[in-house]
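Write out the bound-state structure for iron/sulfur cluster.
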Amino acid sequence: MNNKKKESLNLAIMTRDFNSVDLSDPREAALAVKRKALELGADAVGIGNIERWADAPIQLDPKQIMPECKSIIGMVFRVDRGSLRGVEEGTYFSNYSAMGYGGLTYVYMPMTVINLTKFIEDQGYEAIPMGHQSDWRAVTIKGDTYEKYSRPVRPGQATPDVMVHLRIAAFLCGLGEIGFSKMFLSPQFGPRCRVGIVLTDVELEPDPIYDGPQLCNRCMACVRACPGQAFSTEKTVKVKLGGREVEWSDIDVLKCNDAFRGIVHSGVPQSEPYLNTPGNEDSVPGDWSPFYQRPYPVYKTGQAICGSRGCTRACMISLESRGVLQNTFKQKFRRRPVWSVDWSKEPEYAPGTKFKNQDKDGVD
Ligand code: SF4
Ligand code: SF4
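---
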């Protein structure tokens, strides 16, 4: 090759390889997609065929988003156990909200699912990346449709935005169980995970519904440790998913919504409420929050002051002690008694604590 020709090759633009992986065989295609998902950062991956969503309510139906959808790829992303350490010790709360919550939801999962959809679309099939984003959904956290929010664009269609229920998707992709707490439990990490999915028109061989070692044994550790008493033990929800009956506590989402941010309603208007928003004028910090005012959310949604004390930490401790999780650790998670803030007493600061403006020569 002469030098001029070499030079022109070097200067040519470079691009991805299109149509280089044959996804026409469902079994081979499923293997290729799952390997790619792990390579891109998912911690576990499973596949459900669209027939498993046959009974999905219209506002949660993936076929409303992609009528030609044949497969859903579910991915588990672990919440690092270490990201719960600071809240467990009571010294570093933002790490869970950032790295275990908002950062996973808004940065890490989107990167992985977008890159997986690029791999699928490179082969000529359409794929929708869904990290955790359902911010424009037309359904409330209770599952009701908002009135006067949006309207169907064609008669008979769902009203935008449809939301695919991610925990149920993980179950239907064979990735684990839904526990009594309604948290998705994976055999690798228990409740310590978040879920991302990809909808695609490629036909992929589905994985069976999870049938491994029982994860939730109704130990009720989640119920006892939830600071908001959000779980009912009497009222439960029973649904049929993938031919299995699944039951979870009828969680009071409004109680959780308050407690997870550290709110207690005192019933008395406060001059400086814990959360200064309408309806929260009487709010004070609970004994599971060390903050005088609720800190602002990190990555938009991360404000989990309770550090999922019941639904994640207590459940994880229970599952780890039963030896049913694959991600095992050299040391147990809980190493000191559970702390609680006594707001009726003055704080006792540690020696060496130095306040802002205490020393005029100091640096902030
Ligand atoms: S804490 Fe116990 S009852 Fe609650 S979800 Fe976990 S295993 Fe199930
Ligand atoms: S996030 Fe906190 S308040 Fe909500 S259910 Fe879990 S432990 Fe209870």
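---
Strands lie at 44-49, 71-78, 127-130, 177-178, 184-185, 193-200, 236-241, 244-249, 263-265, 283-285.
The mean pLDDT is 94.
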